[in-house]
Amino acid sequence: MVNRAQQITRSALAGYGAAGFLAALSLGTLGVVALKAGGLSGLNGGDLAAIRFTVAQALASAILSVALAIPVARALARRQFRGRGLLVTLLGAPFILPVIVAVLGLLAVYGRASVISEALQSLGFTRLDIYGFSGVVLAHVFFNLPLATRLFLQGWQAIPSEHFRLAAGLGMNSRDISRHLERPMLGRVLPGTFATIFLLCVTSFAVALTLGGGPRATTIELAIYQAFRFDFDLSKAALLALVQFGLTAIAAVLAWRLTRPARLGTGFDQPVKRWDCNGVGAVTLDALTLTLTALFLLLPLAAVALKGLAGLPDLPFSILPAALRSIAVALTSALLTLSLALPLAQTIARTSPHRPRLAGLLEGAGYLSIAASPMVIGTGLFIALFPLVDPARLALPITALVNAALSLPFALRALIPALREVEREYGPLADSLGMRGLARFRLMTWPRIRPAAGFAAGLAAALSMGDLGVIALFADPDAATLPLMLYRLMGSYQMEAANGAALLLVGLSLALFWGFDRGGRVRAAS
Amino acid sequence: MKTPLLAAGLMLALTGMAPAQDKPILNIYTYDSFVSDWGPGPAVEKAFEEICACDLQFTAAGDGAALLARLQLEGARSKADVVLGLDTNLTARAAKTGLFAPHNRAMDENNLPVKWDDPLFLPYDWGYFAFVYDTTKLARVPYNFEMLASAPDDFKIIIQDPRSSTPGLGLLMWIKAAYGDRAPEIWAGLAPHILTVTKGWSEAYGMFLAGEANMVLSYTTSPAYHLIAEQDDTKAAAIFEEGHYLQIEVAGKLAASDQPALADRFLEFMLSEAFQSIIPTTNWMYPVGILKDGLPEGFEPPVPPAKALLFSPEDALAVRNEALDEWLTALSK
Amino acid sequence: MLHLENLLIRQGDFSLTADWSLERGQKLAIIGPSGGGKSTLLSAIAGLIPITAGRIHLGGQDASELPPAKRPVSLLFQDHNLFPHLSVGRNVGLGLRPDLKLSRDQWQQVDAVLVQVGLEGLAARQPGALSGGQRQRVALARALLRKRPVLMLDEPFAALGPALKSEMLELVAQIVSDNELTLVMVTHDPNDARRISDVVSLVTDSVAQAPQETQNLFANPPKALAHYLGQEDF
Fold this sequence. Notes:
The structure holds three protein chains of three kinds.
Chain A: H1 2-37, H2 45-78, H3 84-91, H4 99-110, H5 115-122, H6 133-158, H7 161-169, H8 174-202, H9 206-212, H10 220-229, H11 234-258, H12 280-311, H13 319-351, H14 356-371, H15 374-385, H16 395-433, H17 437-465, H18 482-491, H19 495-521
Helix pairs in contact in A: 1-11, 1-13, 1-14, 1-15, 2-6, 2-8, 2-12, 4-12, 6-8, 6-9, 8-11, 10-11, 12-19, 13-14, 13-16, 13-17, 13-19, 14-16, 16-17, 17-19, 18-19
Chain B: H1 3-15, E1 25-30, H2 32-35, H3 41-52, E2 55-60, H4 64-74, E3 82-87, H5 91-96, E4 100-101, E5 121-134, H6 145-149, E6 157-160, H7 166-179, H8 183-190, E7 194-198, H9 201-209, E8 215-219, H10 222-230, E9 235-238, E10 244-254, H11 260-270, H12 273-276, H13 280-283, E11 286-287, E12 308-309, H14 313-332
Parallel strand pairs in B: 1-2, 1-3, 6-7, 6-8, 10-12
Antiparallel strand pairs in B: 3-10, 4-10, 5-8, 5-9, 5-10, 5-11
Helix pairs in contact in B: 7-14, 8-14
Chain C: E1 2-11, E2 14-22, E3 27-31, H1 38-46, E4 53-58, E5 61-62, E6 73-76, H2 88-93, H3 104-116, H4 132-146, E7 150-154, H5 162-178, E8 182-186, H6 190-196, E9 199-204, E10 207-208, E11 212-213, H7 214-219, H8 223-229
Parallel strand pairs in C: 2-10, 3-8, 3-9, 6-7, 7-8
Antiparallel strand pairs in C: 1-2, 1-4, 4-5, 9-10, 9-11
């Protein structure tokens, strides 16, 4: 067993290394900021109000996203129709939209100057006014409903089709199936999904501010921003970041204690054949659900596309190098995500049977980034790196790296179950044939997890494509990325061109995601 | 597993190569929109490099406040020789850092509406904060804050958050300078008309152009942009009786600069015609200097200097937190 | 050839003991109720699960600590014998080198062994394009290439129809005698045991009993076997 033991140690080392790196990136940067400040300072009334608002909007957003996603996922799981695959892909788009693009898209449809508002006014009603708590929640549902739907759909498709066949054979109706098959599945998938969305909404900042209608909608992340920019109070920033970690840690522990994460990523192709839901009522309900969801999510996207098309001719030539730079960042980020996620996921999958607590700790490290404040990560990295190297030269690598870390929770959720499955099914065969190390990875593991890896890489690429968060302190004026160009265009009154840049950004993000996701699934079928 | 190697290689490629240098380098820290393709940066760099036998390198950091925060993070080890893009709301805080050196220079004749005697910072452009509206959509234009407050309920304005945006902080100062202790009352009156508060100018202006609100907080020079660059004369700035708060943008030399002479030359250049003539149609602000050919059409200052409102840097710093608290209180109700 | 010395396997509430040996060239069938531990015993011999106490000797040497691939055994599972993403040829080739870096000569060996199991010319096919019987032939071909003296079968033909199954058993019998292999086969079908094995071990009540001559055993079943065969009333 000597060789094999060594092999495990080496790959486990890479796993622990990845976990340590992630902890350093999220908690370490916070430590650096606190160290620079010389400690933590107290919270005032405004900070407490920010904490309350943050929790309230994140809870509401998560509840609504999850509640709406269940009927949507059910409809997608039990209906076969033309364009279903395309719809599932497009439904993923809002999740990877840059915030400002999404907000302008949402306003084009639900804003005071939108077609809907015009129509309402001509009918004698008041215009739509989404600003305030409802606007924040609306935007967060827009971003996260697709994610929740994807997770639930995954849960539905994990129910073996034999169970539905058995249910049909026993003459179960929709209600019985719901009780015996669907609700138990939801019980497993729901807490993790809820927690994920809650966490994503906790660190929200620009959405909350822009649509929140005023300082009532101050989130913790905005308070952190204020501490840096307005007060230059690093100790306050560090403390608020710590509070944010605390909040998310509580949510994460509550949710992940309750369930094993649902598998994310692969196999949306075949809906399960069902016999129980062909009544007029059920069909109408599903059709209505899908139509309304598609309209809710796709209209803002269509608005972005329409305005963008008109703006494409106004784009300056410099958009081209910016786009190429962004693509390079996205590809790097995708590869980095895999380089971090694969050893970590493999170590977690291997340790979990005999050392579940250690595996849980490693998995927790992988999720840390979702709870970290992008502002604190950026500042901590800046403080740590500035004495050593010119920050501007690190702008693009840092963007790629931080986004890889931010994509990691999703990558892990896709990869860990896939790795567990391949080890369970083919591990004994590989063991008995003596397949070890690289050969085992190349000939057994990689071909089996390619779909999950493709999904993870695609998500990382798309997310880093649209990111601006961490780059601010490191920005290199001569090497602007696409989102930075977008903001510069907006900051220079070039709104038409900015719309064009937004369309380009969305198009490239989706294309990258689609490319990786597809690339993972092509010829991967067994 | 070649992925990590490949990723590391790409990371290295993304760091880029440092250019070989023989000329002295002047490092200027400024805000992001200054260096964008549409800002003054490219033209300024070209014009100065023609006369300085040096390499001018910009480093961009968000906006003025982010610029100052970055400088504070870097401290005396900063490679910056000149910081360009602070305004008078920030200069007191900037002076307190002790990082700046005196410019030892008197201001020439200029068209600033106020007298300038700051020993550390020199101004390069200025403007008035103002609410901008669409002349084709707004018939009754408010001409003071109280009239704005008493507008119908569906009259909406978009402002920026003072905690994250320069114009946002400007409005805070504007109302404080115009109304003093009555500021909370004015804010309470404005509150129902504030559609939303955005992170920065870009989001607010974009939403205004999309038709979301009747007016947006911007500058009196914004209409000039639409007129000159887009031949669109439908945008106008509402002129308020109380006067308008000034934003004066300044630059300063770092005490720790390793190119002090070059930095002085740049500040000199900044006040010259070559730099000043670039400002109006790139930064869309009033130049500090008096241009040979005068200002482009649309750039006439809208209010007599007597109506210009401005706190001294020390007063601005002193009232800042109180004004912010008043704003938070009024808008959180 | 195979000697289980005071072997104990414990997994939670489950336990299994065995203390017997098998001569070279013998053909052993392991039968018993499902859940009794037949597959577990095979996995332990193959080194895929750890043993709690005792020793496993294979070919005269103590194999208890050897990694699975170093043990002189080949094991065919009920399913997952082939990697579905690798061609038939590559699946077989894994038997020669687990990293699949084969010489031209070795690839010819792969083709040759495919001929032996009746799959001539199918090397380029994907396993998904084969029938269930053909897939198990591929697995047998790989076991042949590995040239391990002990062949262990964990009900690999259970899912095949009767005709196909007897065809496969014939093939196994021929391979075993041609190559002078020792065979250990798990089955739940006494007829399989009668057809191919010369000794039988009954696994029941946490014990894998010492092998006994097949003919004698079935002619005169002890109580536990009779119970398993449903013959108690006779």
